[in-house]
Design goal:
single chain, about 450 residues, alpha/beta, Alkaline Phosphatase, subunit A, Arylsulfatase, C-terminal domain, eight-stranded mixed sheet, four-stranded antiparallel sheet, about 30% helix, hydrolase activity
Length: about 450
């Protein structure tokens, strides 16, 4: 390990999943691919939740959403518990100067996050209007970061959280949610490779082609930031992490605990410490990112985290490595109540649903998209079963629920018991009954005075 602590540059994108060239997708993302080739790329990195705020909360706290309190969207009356600490606060205690660029989307009170400097307005909500998210487009966020690095206006070491808007959908004409094709360069729908878990219908291809424009813009923004880091002469002394919070905004992805919903990119570069050009297929959760960063900068991990460091896997001389044999995922509230808990192992995915729910939940932006219109009738009914079990060896697309097949009885019982043990051990409030929303007091209020 180097004698001095590195700067930490954390770049994170919206609704991207692993839709990148370095993950075998038919799309050109040369700058992110190059970053991955210069460090460690995790091929089975999963989010704690298939939605924005809860997953980002886990990334920043190292704890599951129902543990840190962020069980729904931060702009929808959900907040981290008052005593919850996040990555910039840990690094600030270690002497880092902390900076926020672009989106954060984990708290309505930016001051509560404890950054020394906030460089972006409107950093909470990604917005659904093309004008709302203007400041957080990749090129604009990258420009602010470039100016920061060019002026050397910081006291090393620094921590910079850089949040890009792409690839979040926006509300367009007639209530449709798309990818702002009037601003981004879309691909021809006929040229894109269909998603393996959805039918290759026109509306789905149309949306996918539009989303590619956002991916290209994101890739260029990441490249601009990395170029600015190089011009500042900071490549060798900077730990760079690139990730995203959950799967793409398509049916059976965002808002679901299927792999397409919880898959997330993760690339880590630290020259001379993290082995370059390595790809890892270990199971990794985004609650593991915080302890990994702390260990790589030489700080002790606090007690009570749900994550575990993977620094010992990707770097020499930084301690041991405790390999995972399972990861957990969850969802409670988004734009509606969707209480789900899940466990994934190398072979199986077990999902427990705790409410009367449609076959596939579609978040509002997906429901009102061209893709959503192609499938929403089929996905609306009948209600999904309370238990889902998928043998990922035989059904990697999670399209064959074997929860009630006799030959899978033992696997179902074992995974169900492990999931319950985790929920009990983490005091999951869902075990006590339905979880009320953050605005429950307002719902219960009765302003009419009969007198």
């Amino acid at each position: 390990m180097p004698d001095s602590r590195p700067n930490v540059l954390l770049m994170h994108a919206h609704d991207l999943g692993r839709h990148l060239g370095c993950y075998g997708v038919d799309i050109e993302t040369p700058r992110i691919d190059a970053l991955a080739s210069e460090g460690a790329l995790f091929e089975r990195h999963f989010a704690s939740a298939p939605q924005c705020s809860p997953s980002r909360g886990s990334l920043m706290t190292g704890r599951a959403p129902h543990v840190n309190g962020l069980m729904g969207l931060a702009h929808g009356d959900w907040e981290l518990h008052d005593d919850e600490r996040i990555l910039p606060q840990y690094l600030s205690d270690a002497g880092y100067e902390t900076h926020l660029f672009g989106l954060q989307h984990i708290s309505q009170d930016t001051d509560r996050l404890g950054y020394d400097y906030v460089h972006s307005e409107g950093n909470l909500y990604p917005g659904v209007s093309p004008t709302v998210h203007q400041a957080n487009r990749g090129r604009n966020v990258a420009s602010v970061v470039e100016s920061f690095l060019a002026k050397s206006a910081y006291e090393a070491p620094f921590f910079a959280s850089v949040g890009f808007f792409e690839c979040h959908r926006v509300e367009e004409r007639n209530g449709r949610y798309g990818f702002d094709a009037g601003y981004y360069r879309a691909d021809d729908p006929e040229s894109v490779r269909p998603l393996p878990y959805l039918p290759g219908r026109r509306g789905i291809r149309h949306d996918l082609g539009e989303m590619h424009g956002m991916v290209y813009a994101l890739d260029e923004a990441v490249g601009s930031v990395l170029d600015a880091l190089a011009r500042a002469g900071l490549v060798e002394e900077t730990l760079v992490v690139f990730t995203t919070e959950h799967g793409i905004a398509f049916p059976r992805a965002k808002g679901t605990c299927y792999d397409a919903g919880i898959e997330a990119a993760l690339a880590i570069r630290y020259p001379g410490v993290v082995d370059a050009g390595r790809r890892y297929d270990d199971l990794v959760s985004n609650v593991d990112v915080l302890p990994t960063v702390l260990e790589l900068v030489g700080e002790e991990c606090p007690a009570g985290l749900g994550g575990r460091s993977v620094a010992g896997l990707i770097a020499d001389g930084v301690g041991g490595y405790d390999e995972r044999d399972r990861i957990f995922a969850e969802m409670t509230w988004h734009d509606t109540y969707n209480p789900v808990r899940a466990i994934r192992t190398n072979r199986y995915k077990y999902i427990r649903n705790f409410w009367h729910l449609p076959t596939v939940y579609l978040p509002a932006d997906v429901f009102a998209s061209e893709s959503g219109r192609e499938v929403r009738e089929a996905y609306g009914l009948p209600f999904r079963q309370y238990e889902e079990l998928y043998d990922l060896r035989d059904a990697p697309r999670e399209d064959d629920n074997v929860a009630h097949e006799p030959r899978y009885r033992d696997a179902r019982r074992e995974l169900s018991a492990q999931l319950l043990e985790w929920m009990n051990g983490t005091d999951d409030p869902l075990l006590d009954g339905p979880v009320v929303p953050g605005d429950y007091d307002e719902i219960r209020s009765w302003p009419h005075d009969p007198s």
